[in-house]
Amino acid sequence: MPKRFQRLSALIRKETTQLLRDRRTLMFIITLPLIELFLFAYAVSLTVYHLPTAIVDQSQDSQSRAFIQALVSSTYFDTTLSLQNETQVVQAIDAGQVKAGVVIPPDFSADIERGDANVLILLDGSDSFSVQSGYSAASAIAQSFSLNLTTQKIVHMGLASGTAAGSPPIVTSTRVLYNPDLKDLWFILPAIVGMIIQTLAVAQAALIVVKDREIGTMEQILATPVRPIELILGKMIPLLVIILLITAVILGLGVFWFGVAFQGSLWLYFWLALVFIGSSLGLGLLVSTVARTQRQAQQISMVLMLFSMLLSGIVYPRNAMPLIPQFIGDLLPLTYFIRISRGIITKGVDLAFLWPDALVLVGYCLVVLLVASASFKKRLD
Question: How many domains does the structure of the chain reveal?
């Protein structure tokens, strides 16, 4: 066996033994991703249901009650207060008692007969997700309610004979691909898996070199003929194996516990996840060559995590961002793995569609390792 492989093998055994002996760190590495998965899966939702709603029904007739019932039946709105006017609704929203308000005018039924009924819906703009969910739901409910009334009126007038006079001018048919039930978790979980992996890999890799430097074991390693690239690979490989196993556990929980459908190739996913983990570990090792203490390494890792959550496309679409935030997001491996993860898990596509992102991750992994090795060598000199 060549000497370089003997040195690398010895470093891997040393790092593996050191990692297994540190049971607190090992338990932290194993349990933290599981806690994050359950927190994200159960707490993060892009659609808000059961908005506390104040009702001002100034009409008090069958049509207004039917409209209120339509709002409640949609499960988007819950009537929690019955008030007298718009001012009281605004005060209730200001006090945080409700998130929405519905004001029905006095002549609601007569307005419907004339075709110019107007219902005022007030939403709490300080909560963006509530506004988006409430606005979309209210618009859909109002349109459906109006269409039902129009249909009833046409039938009542005897025009429901299939003639062109009773036919709508445009008929649309909508079909949602890959996520027909519009489940938020099916959209979020593929990205959350990547977020957990990168956070764990960067944090642990950033600490591993700094920790050796602080406790004094780095000097012992430097007394050997080991090279910087061998030292970096020796520290990466044990972490890579552990994080790959954690990835399998997280993905299994997502599929079998949370019911997220896995549409693509499992082998392709894990091969590309391996490249992504290597890229994240390389990024963490690059951080470790810059940071002088564990505290500095943790702070830099937190900044990277913040940028990743906001700029990689986990929740917010990247095409709506300005150019500078998009450029910063392009520097993070998570940005590319999110597209890969959603493509394989949700869409079931193969490498023919994913190769640009996969190629970027391979190049990213190589470049980061080389830069980390060069920076580490300079620091040692």
Answer: 2
Look at residue 164 in the predicted model and tell me its pLDDT: 45
Three-state secondary structure string covering 3-20: HHHHHHHHHHHHHHHHHH
Q: Are residues 285 and 205 in the same domain?
A: yes
Token pair 């050796």 is found at 212
Residues 67 and 119 in one domain: yes
* Torsion, CA 142, CA 148, CA 152, CA 157, rounded to 10: 70
* Within-domain flag for 332: yes
pTM reported for the whole predicted model: 0.74
What is the C-alpha to C-alpha distance for residues 15 and 17, in angstroms, rounded to an integer? 5
- Hunting for tokens 């079909």 — which residue is that? 175
Sheet holding 77-82, edge to edge: 77-82, 51-57, 100-104, 120-123
- For residue 195, which of 278, 39, 314 has the smallest C-alpha distance? 314
10-residue mean pLDDT profile of the chain (381 residues): values are 68 74 79 84 74 89 86 87 89 86 85 77 74 76 74 61 47 62 79 89 80 63 66 80 91 89 90 92 82 79 86 80 88 91 89 91 87 63 47
Residues 346 and 261 in one domain: yes
